[in-house]
UniProtKB/TrEMBL annotation:
GO terms for molecular function: ATP binding; ATP hydrolysis activity; transmembrane transporter activity. This is Putative ABC transport system ATP-binding protein. It comes from Pseudokineococcus lusitanus. Keywords: ATP-binding, Nucleotide-binding. InterPro entries: AAA+_ATPase, ABC_transporter-like_ATP-bd, ABC_transpr_LolD-like, P-loop_NTPase. GO terms for cellular component: plasma membrane. Residues 1-21 are annotated as: Disordered. Residues 23-236 form the ABC transporter domain. SMART domains: AAA. It comes from the Bacteria. Residues 9-19 have a biased composition (Pro residues).
Amino acid sequence: MTGRHAAPVPGPSPAPPPRGGVLGCHDLVKTYRRGREEVRALRGVTLEVRPGEVVALVGRSGSGKTTLLNCLLGWEAPDAGTTTHGATARGAARTSWEEVAVVPQRFGLLEELSLLDNVALPARLAGHDDPAAAAVAVLEALGLAAVVDRAPAEVSLGQAQRTALARALVVRPAFLVADEPTGRLDEDTTTQVLGVLRDLCTTAGTGALVASHDTTTIAHADRVLRMSDGRLEPDA
Ligand SMILES: Nc1ncnc2c1ncn2[C@@H]1O[C@H](COP(=O)(O)OP(=O)(O)OP(=O)(O)O)[C@@H](O)[C@H]1O
Ligand SMILES: [Mg+2]
C-alpha cells in the first residue's frame, strides 16, 4: 500500500543494523500469579516475523498481546519458551534499538526532553552523523513539524503516540515491535502513519509486529495473527 501522505524516513545510520534472520518466539508460556489468583496470559505461543513484512497482532482486550510483545522483547521473563532476535544470536536483553525498536502501549517518552530530543536520542546513541536532523525528518513525515520543541506533557496523546513511533523509526531498525501504535489516532492520521511505516518496511527491510484493534491497521498488514485467551488461533 502507499499512504496518501507517505513521506520518506531519513537515511540510514552510519552503522546499519544487521539484516536478515527473523524476530520470533517458540512455545512461550507466561502465567501471572497474584496470591491464589492465576492468569494464564500466554499458553504456548509460536510466531515469526520476517524482514520487510508488516504483521498485525489482533485479539480482544486481555487476550495476551502486550504480554506476548513484552516477553518477545525480554521486558518480561516467560515461564517457558524461547525467543529469536533478528540476525544476531544474542538474547533479548542485549538486543540493540537498531535491531529491535519498540513503541510501547504507554509510549515511554522522557518527560524532561522535547519531542525532538526524545526522537534524536536513539539516533545519537547509534552514532548517527546528525541525530537532530534525522529526528526532524521523521517527525515531519509523521505530521509533527509544528510541535517538535514541546515536551510530551504539552502535546495531545495522538501526538505523543506518533512521537513514540518516530523514536522507533529514526534508526531504521531491523525489526519493530509496536503495541497499539494507532490507538489514539483518527483515520487520516492512521493512514499517514501506516504509509510511513510501510515505506520503512519496503526501503529498509524492517519487519514489523503491530498489536492493534484498529481496522485500518489490520487492513494494511501483510498478515494477521489472532490471539485468543493466551493462544494464537490456528488459522493465523
Ligand atoms: N502484571 C500483571 N499481573 C497480573 N495479571 C496481569 C499482569 N499483566 C497482565 N495481566 C493479565 O494478563 C492478561 C493479558 O494481558 P495483556 O496486557 O497481555 O492483554 P492485551 O491483549 O494486551 O490487552 P489490551 O488489548 O487491553 O491491551 C489479562 O488478563 C491481564 O489482566
Ligand atoms: Mg495490550
